[in-house]
Amino acid sequence: MLVAEAARRFAAHPVFAELCHDLVGDDVRLYWDQLVYKQPEKPRHFPWHQDNGYTYVEPQQYLTCWVPLTDTTIDNGCPWVAPGLHRLGDRQSVVGELAEERLGGLGPLVEHRGDLGQRSGVEGALHEHVSVLVEVLDLVWPEESQGLAFGALPGEPLVPGVWPRLHAPMVGVRPRWLPWRAVPTLTADQRAVWERDGFIVVPGFADESTCEALMARTVAICRAADEGRDVGDALVLEEPHPDPAASRAEERVGKVFRLHHVPGPHADLAHAPEVVDLVGDLLGPDVDCFLSQFIFKNRGALGQPWHQDAWYFRMTPSDQVGAWLAVTAATPDNGPLWVVPGSHREPIHEVVPDRRPGAQAGYVEIADLGTDGVPVLMDPGDLLLFHAHLVHRSTDNTTEEPRAAMVLHFGAAGTHDPAVDPDSGVLVAFLAELGVHLPVPLPAAVEAVARAGVRNRWVPVRRGGLGVAAPLSR
Ligand SMILES: O=C(O)CCC(=O)C(=O)O
To answer: Is the CB of 297 under 6 A from ligand 1?
Structure first.
């Protein structure tokens, strides 16, 4: 699993994570993997056994996922199981005997295969992965079907929602628990640039299909909202002055918020190991995503004036990280971001309200900045990571085509966010600082609306240095 990328993706498939969460617990690691290849006409009988007889893991709380890569029949060596004997504990030496005696025989697993597959949804979800897996595994371990075993790590507290940890196969009789990472994280150069400038650009970060999926789902949400259909928790914000010639719903939308906890491409991006590991390098082992917005900047739309995200966030600590993914190109004329390198070391600036006709409600501006900053021109798929104190803006879109970006904001778990503080007094004071004055005492209905806000959920994406699985569509 550590060697082959396709094998790693296979083992990290959300279907396994979901099954593990349901059957083992929340903090589940992959501790063993093996390919078993049964050569034709070379019978290799594996006697009755219990896997825990081989693992020496405490607690004996684990799940083996046995995935057939070829059709599995009685004649070609399918697994056989003794139903119910899992309740008898560790009886390795007598399991065969007990099965014969108490159950009147043992059934082959093959009889249940289709039904089990259908019930758990495994078959469909894995279908696309199997061919690539077979191909890669042929190269890596030409001799050996695929078995994966997942278990809780002994002696560690259970943390909700943690991905399986992948580690090397057992050495001797004791498993070695090794943390595993899907992709390289920040290089020394990137870290140095981050320290110096407060932002880094990762070219070619996301592929075309990721950008297309983000765009397609957001367009679908805009159209559904426009037709009065249910869009779940997503919040669609119209442009204050849309182009009068705009015909499609998405051409009248400025931003769509609250996407990172809804199963789909936005949440997948927020949980992607590539994103989470990079951001985790900056924020530590326990990271949450607290804000998501898809920004359309349609023909003629205004940009956002100079500001620091920390002004809007008011969090403690205030070192959040923004991830701005270019879904379309960001060109000099279509309203790219502009940044002031090094400004992440500055405190939060004073601001004045943005009074331009057509500006989004609530925009503020750092007036008299005294610098022009630099534009960040990007190709589709490029990623900008930036510090919450970095002074930045975006300019107007003077082209005919929309400029689009998917923006996620991450913070260290445990950060104090006044927007979600249970004390309504804190919420009222926070909103007052942003210029939104609510009545005190706060009526329940007003509080509910204020709490919905644009950021209403802190969603774990990394715990203990490991990625947390994205929510699955049911
Ligand atoms: O993408 C834009 O036009 C502005 C985004 C921005 O400044 C922000 O998310 O803080």
So the answer is: yes
pLDDT at 445: 93
Interacting residues of 413 by C-beta distance below 8 A, sequence separation 6+: 286, 287, 288, 458, 460, 463
Domain boundaries, the chain: 32-176, 188-417+456-467
- Answer whether 339 contacts ligand 1 (Cβ < 6 A): no
pTM of the predicted model as reported, rounded to 2 decimal places:
0.66
CATH label, 188-417+456-467, candidates 3.40.220.10, 2.60.120.10, 2.60.120.620, 3.90.79.10: 2.60.120.620
Confidence label for 163 from pLDDT (cuts 50, 70 and 90): very low
- Residue pair 276/461 in contact (Cβ under 8 Å)? The answer is yes
Alpha helix ranges (H) inside 180-258: 188-197, 208-226
Mean pLDDT over 417-425 rounds to 94
In testing the pocket of ligand 1, which one of 390, 407, 408, 410 has its CB within 8 Å of the most ligand atoms?
A: 407
pLDDT above 60 (res 173): no
Q: Which atom of ligand 1 is least distant from the CA of 322?
A: 9
